[in-house]
Amino acid sequence: MAKQGAKKRKEENSRHMKNLLRYIIACNVIYLVVKAGIFHSTFKWQHWAGFMLTFFAYIIPYQQLALMARPEYTDDGELLDGGFDMSTGGVCGYLHDIIYITGFVQLTSIISEKFWYIYLVIPAFAAYKCFGFLKGFLSLGAQEGEVDEKTKKKREKMERRATRAQFMRTRNR
């Protein structure tokens, strides 16, 4: 009974990974049937290159998620850990976003080639996150050197108040 949470997470991860695989297969099949089958006269080598790009854009995040979702067992075969919780954010959420954006781009590129530009959202978001991360490191040194007069006076006033002895007023009854 102590490992009930691990068993439940293992089942949830298994179900989630199966659903992701179905999504990936469905997007690939729809793209190939519609683009290569129905619109075969307009299907060129660039479309094969795009298909291979989306194929690898699916496979790499899916494999990473599969590694995260894999349960751990003891030497006796007893379930030790049910795997990573797939509903959390962070890297897991970003990998899901890549898979879903890839599916959207792949299916909408059937309609127009301009939908491939949506893929630029992924590196743009990564640059935004990296810029915020680096900005935190770079701004630490700049904040200590530059302090305007108003902030300086406010800080001195707060320090004087903190060093003063404080008395509590009580009511006389």
How would you describe this protein?
The protein has helices at residues 4-38, 45-69, 91-108, 121-145, 149-163, and strands at 72-73, 79-81. α1 (4-38) runs parallel beside α3. Helices cover 68% and strands 3% of the residues. It is built from 5 helices and 2 strands, in the order ααββααα. The chain is mainly α. The longest helix is centred in the first third of the chain and has 35 residues, at 4-38. It starts with a helix and ends in a 10-residue tail after the last helix. The relative contact order is 0.10. The radius of gyration is 27 Å and the shape is flat. A two-stranded antiparallel sheet has the order 1-2.
Largest sheet, strands/sense/barrel: 2 strands, antiparallel
- Ranges with pLDDT <50 over ≥5 residues? none
| Beta-strand percent range | under 5%
What's the number of helices?
Answer: 5
- Structural class, please? mainly alpha
Helix fraction, binned, reads 55-70%
CA radius of gyration: 27 Å
What is the number of beta strands? 2
Mean pLDDT rating: 82
Distance between the termini: 60 Å
- Categorize the overall geometry: flat
Strand order of the largest sheet: 1-2
- N-to-C order of helices and strands: HHEEHHH
